[in-house]
Amino acid sequence: MNAEPSPSVENRPRCAWANSDDLMARYHDVEWGKQPESDREYFEALTLESFQSGLSWRTILHRRDGFRMAFSGFSIPVVANFTEHEVEKLLMDEGIIRHRGKIEATIHNARAFQMIQEEAGSFRDWIAEMPPDPVVIHKALKPHLKFFGPTTCESFLEAVGKIPPPHDPECWKAQS
Fold it and tell me: Does residue 141 lie within any of the structural domains?
C-alpha cells in the first residue's frame, strides 16, 4: 500500500491535513480510504490508528518505518508471541512512540486478530461481513481490542475504506 501517486494527481488540491509534506500527501492520495489486501495491512492500520490516539497523524506516519521494524513488519503471529522482554526493548526504541500501554495493546490486539482469523477465516472476511457502521463495529470489536475507543474505531474504518473518509470539499478526492 505504499505506491507512489501518479504525476497527474500530485498537484491536485487535497484535504488541508495532507498538505504538510510529501509523505502525508502520498498517504492521502494513495492509501487513505482504500481497502487493505491482507490481514497484515489491516493490523498495521489498526496499530497505527491506536498509537495515534492523542497525537498527530503526521507524527505517526513519519515513524511508520520504525513501527514496521519494531513490530516485525506487522506480522500478526510474530507480534502475538511478543513477551515482556520485547515490550522492554520496544520501550527503548526511539523509532516508535514509547508508550507501554499502546505497546502492550498492540500485542494483545495481535492475539485478538488471531482469534478473529480462527473464527472467520480472516480479519478481512470478518470486516467485509460487517455493516459500514462505526457503532456496530466498535461494539463488536471493543471486547477484544485495547486502545480502541469510538474515535479510533471511526478513524480506522475511514483509513481502511470501510466507511468513506471525510474529504475537504475542495479536495480532488471529494470531487471523484
Answer: yes
For residue range 115-159, list pLDDT tens digits in order: 999 999 999 999 999 999 999 999 999 999 999 999 999 999 999
HSE (CB half, 13 Å, CA atoms) of 85?
3
The span from the CA of 69 to the CA of 174, in Å, is 34
Q: Domain residues for 139?
A: 39-159
Q: Which residues are catalytic?
A: 27, 49, 57
131, part of any domain: yes
Closest CA to 158 of 31, 17, 47, 26: 31
Task: Say which residues have a Cβ less than 8 Å from residue 43's Cβ, sequence separation at least 6.
Answer: 74, 76, 79, 109, 110, 113, 123
What does the angle CA 42 – CA 44 – CA 46 come to, to the nearest 5 degrees?
A: 70
Chain mean position to CA 166: 16
What's the pTM value of the predicted model, to 2 decimals? 0.93
